[in-house]
Specification:
By secondary structure, this protein is an alpha/beta fold. It has helices at about 10-25, 30-35, 40-50, 55-65, 70-80, 95-105, 125-135, 140-155, 175, 185-195, 245-265, 265-280, and strands at about 85-90, 110-115, 165-170, 200-205, 220-225, 230-235, 240-245.
């Protein structure tokens, strides 16, 4: 597959997976290059996707890392479609997309997330997340719910590391008033939200009910920005999730974000509103 200057979200996902496979085996780029007759710089370029990914190189690396079967086919399919901008999947393709999201969150320098009815996933407590998952999909077993909750909790590690991204979480006031999991679960969730809001890298903003109709009515989305790669938008609904990377799409989401922030409470007013809601739930 010829290389090109545009590195799509699919190509970036394949490149990141190759890096993780190497690191899982405790190898350096130089060691892999020596074994396969590649230069260290070539292995490094492949893992960033900056020089374009060649199918032969990716197949060679997957064979070296002993990746076979469905996972190999999945990665090669992503590579085959790597020149396509954007990426959307319907179930059951979401697990692949979610692996990509987790990796992009870990690399992002700035994340801006709007939610209309839910506390954002990066700020959810385990019991709140469990209640949401059970409500959304009643057929999940207890073990499946536990695994999904554990994955969500693991995602949140990016907010507590020393190089945490700048995270802006905007949510409609309905999200913090919706009684998920009962009063106790919701009260603990809101106290956790208050605690996270005190972190220097985290900022929480509420859109008050009094704001009325606004740009957030179209649903939640996340804008991820990186140091040396194009920004991405991630959004999902009932059965579909998607990444968007076209500049026109990004501009539309950024405009929506500005319009939502224009009707949101200021940081201090948001903190006061959260405290008042917590007090209400405690009475």
């Amino acid at each position: 597959m010829p290389g090109n200057s545009h590195t799509s979200v699919r190509s970036r996902t394949v490149a990141a997976e190759l890096r993780k496979l190497r690191e899982a085996q405790g190898l350096t780029c130089a060691e892999v290059g020596d074994k396969l007759g590649m230069s260290t710089s070539k292995v490094s370029r492949i893992e960033t996707g900056r020089s374009g990914l060649q199918a032969d190189d990716v197949l060679t690396l997957l064979g070296f890392y002993q990746v076979h079967g469905n996972r190999r086919a999945e990665l090669m399919d992503l590579l085959r479609r790597g020149d396509e901008k954007g990426w959307w999947e319907r179930q059951p393709g979401l697990p692949t997309l979610w692996r990509a999201l987790i990796d992009f969150e870990a690399k992002a320098l700035r994340i801006q997330n709007y939610e209309s009815l839910l506390i954002p996933g990066l700020l959810q407590t385990a019991e709140y997340a469990s209640a949401i998952l059970q409500a959304l999909e009643s057929t999940l077993s207890a073990a499946e719910v536990d695994n999904l909750v554990a994955s969500r909790m693991a995602r949140q590690a990016i907010l507590t590391r020393s190089s945490a991204p700048n995270y802006l979480a905007i949510m409609h006031e309905a999200a913090v008033r919706l009684p998920v999991g009962g009063p106790g679960v919701m009260a603990r969730q809101l106290r956790w939200l208050q605690e996270m809001n005190e972190r220097p890298s985290v900022s929480v903003r509420l859109v008050p009910i009094s704001a009325g109709a606004n740009a957030g009515l179209r649903g939640g989305f996340m804008v991820l920005e990186f140091g040396d790669e194009p920004a991405l938008v991630f959004a999902e609904n009932q059965e579909t999730a998607l990444f968007q990377e076209e500049e026109a799409d990004l501009a539309g989401y950024r405009l929506a974000l500005r319009n939502i922030l224009n009707v949101a409470l200021a940081p201090d007013a948001t903190a006061e509103r959260l405290s008042a809601i917590v007090a209400e739930m405690s009475t």
